[in-house]
Model the fold of this input.
Amino acid sequence: MEYKVDIGVFGGSGFYSFLENVEEIDIDTPYGKPSDKIALATYEGKRIAFLPRHGKNHQFPPHKIPYKANIHAMKQLGVKKIIAPTASGSLQANVKPGDFVICDQFVDRTWGRNDTFYDGEDVQHISPAHPYCEELRKIAVATGESLGITTHERGTVVVIQGPRFSTVAESRWFSKMGWEVINMTQYPECYLAREAGICYANIALITDYDAGLEGNDDIPPVTHDAVLKVFQENNEKVKKMIFEIIKNIDVTENQCTCCK
Done:
């Protein structure tokens, strides 16, 4: 059976639990299976594909996520636009836990990840100078502001290998470079979407201050439990924003340069 899907979302089952007529499908790609089954549903007349990037049981650590299979599965379904929420840390005092950042740049500090579709005879050099879709970013920023969510309209995310968090020295370095957000999954996910010609926007939900901020000794280093606590407290905001973004996306036309 062929599927025609408009929008992809990397998120867990909580994002579609209240929708009706959800269909879960297994899909194979040339790069193996994606992280889990993909849930298909209709919302506001648009076909949506939901995929938990870590798997439903969070069985894939950041450096083991099958990024190529995940992106290719979306491509096979006909997805043209991907919304990608992430739990992320802050590197700057003005970006607070509970805020959302609509990232516009990334810095890759990972290693050894399978990060390109062009590793065979067909060699192409795709520029990630502006890795995130400007049209989707504008929609996300406007949506966050309309919902009364503190939304930063741009930010650079430094992507670390994981699954460990940063040392104090690393976090201090990243902060002094002026980067705003730290995360473990935006690379190569964002770049692979660009190679696949899919518009991609990240919504970084800030859960913590990484290893603390210099000059703020009362801020403790991040812990896994603290991340989960803030994420769960703000999960409803994330879901509401995603579905509002979906409502605001026009799938009948595309004015950006992401798609090939």
Remarks:
- The mean pLDDT is 89.
- The domain at 7-248 is CATH 3.40.50.1580 (Rossmann fold).
